[in-house]
Automatic annotation (TrEMBL):
It holds the Pfam family SUFU. GO terms for cellular component: cytoplasm; nucleus. The lineage of its organism: Eukaryota, Metazoa, Spiralia, Gnathifera, Rotifera. Residues 43-229 form the Suppressor of fused-like domain. This is Suppressor of fused-like protein. Residues 274-381 form the Suppressor of fused C-terminal domain. SUPFAM superfamilies: Suppressor of Fused, N-terminal domain (SSF103359).
Length: 404
């Protein structure tokens, strides 16, 4: 591809080449394109979304395969993303990924352009707006508790049990590296609420593995069927017991999530480049994140592990047990709270503090809606050191009109 002024299209070309290895018979796929590109002042962040017809395989049904163009650097001239350093072998192109989504085709559908559902394009642009606004980078193993948003994008009556998304690596599209940096293809996989909860108990990869074993849940290509009426636990009756036994034996393998949360302290330079101790930290969670916190107290921290929340505003909260010995741990039993600017907070929870958090907050597991919020809990450590946890409505985490 070329353009007036001979601008670089190396980013676009590499995505096209990756897709062409899978779809050699579809070199000119249907594309949803923004009328006014983001770098020309348009509101949609992605330049293009290519839509391919995929025949499926023995375990996965026929489906539409949506592939984004724009999370990574398409042009290499700084019009959207900062140009990666050619001397950095670990540099990423733009945000370092593109998103994909596989949607099961209705049996009566042909391959005509008129029958391609366009709501997934709205979903992908929606997520792009969130990423561009917050700077958040998705990773394989993340999950997105979407609530009413996904059903409403799908249909006017929201008639689907698929409410949430898991993120994994696309099974067909391979990552690549150019002089603009590395790019991987991350696939969105729709799931039920109870499947999301199970992923929060163990990890996303374990639920993805279960999905891949059955055609009804997408098979090896992980095709999302918005009309699915059975959860993986209905399809595989002993799946829940398998997960429970694995967690009891090994603890949760879920070490990091993207969630609605934030933290704040007083009188700290926001761009400080060194960790420093503080005596008080205010943590804020929505109800979903608070429930995850309760789970990881039992399945991670009591077992001598750590856990990281990645927040909406590009902060992170790392909870660490006294038995954890990973590199990069700055806290200890004396200095239990350490922060790096306003970006990273590390908090060591001793066994007594884990028990106290569990006792004070256990009732939130039974809360089904947000009518009882806000809630506030104070966890005293020692020598006037404390952690304050507030639980607020998820709507209060909106950023510039983007609800996560």
């Amino acid at each position: 591809m070329t353009e007036i002024g001979d601008r670089s299209y190396v980013g676009i070309n590499n995505i096209v080449q990756a897709c062409s290895k899978i779809y050699s018979d579809q070199l000119n796929p249907t594309q949803a394109t923004s009328l006014v590109k983001y770098w020309l002042g348009g509101s949609e962040c992605l330049d293009y979304i290519s839509i391919y017809h995929n025949q499926g395989n023995d375990t996965s049904p026929t489906h539409w395969h949506y592939v984004t163009f724009g999370f990574s650097d398409l042009h290499g001239d700084g019009r959207v993303h900062k140009v990666a350093s050619k001397d950095d072998p670990d540099s990423t192109s733009g945000y370092g990924f593109e998103l994909t989504f596989r949607l099961r085709k209705a049996p009566e559908n042909s391959n005509s352009v008129q029958e391609i559902p366009l709501w997934p394009c709205k979903l992908l642009q929606y997520l792009a707006k969130y990423v561009f606004k917050t700077g958040t980078q998705f990773r394989a193993g993340h999950h997105i508790p979407f609530g009413h948003v996904l059903p409403n994008l799908y249909s006017s009556d929201g008639n689907t049990h698929i409410h949430d998304l898991l993120i994994t690596n696309d099974r067909q599209l391979k990552s690549f590296r150019t002089n603009l940096g590395s790019v991987e293809f991350l696939q969105l996989v729709g799931c039920f609420e109870n499947e999301l909860e199970a992923a929060q108990e163990c990890n996303v990869a374990q639920i993805i593995d279960l999905f891949s074993t059955n055609r009804k849940t997408g098979g090896t290509l992980l095709v999302t069927d918005m009309s699915r009426r059975e959860s993986i636990f209905d399809i595989i009756p002993n799946a829940k017991q398998m997960i429970r036994e694995k967690i009891e034996k090994e603890g949760s393998q879920l070490g990091r999530v993207l969630a609605r949360c934030s933290w704040n302290v007083e009188s700290v330079p926001p761009n400080d480049t060194h960790f420093r101790p503080v005596t008080s930290i205010d943590l804020t969670f929505d109800l979903d994140a608070a429930k995850i916190f309760l789970k990881i107290l039992r399945t991670r921290l009591r077992r001598g592990k750590w856990f990281i929340f990645d927040s909406l505003n590009n902060q992170s909260i790392c909870f660490i047990s006294i038995a954890a010995n990973n590199q990069g741990i700055m806290v200890d039993s004396i200095q239990q709270i350490m922060i790096l600017g306003m970006r990273e907070a590390q908090i060591m929870l001793l066994p007594d503090h884990i028990d106290l958090c569990t006792d004070l907050m256990s009732h939130i597991s039974d809360i089904k809606d947000e009518q009882t919020l806000p809630l506030r809990y104070e966890i005293p450590f020692h020598t006037n050191t404390k952690m304050i946890i507030s639980i607020i409505s998820s709507n209060e985490f909106n950023h510039d009109g983007v609800e996560y």
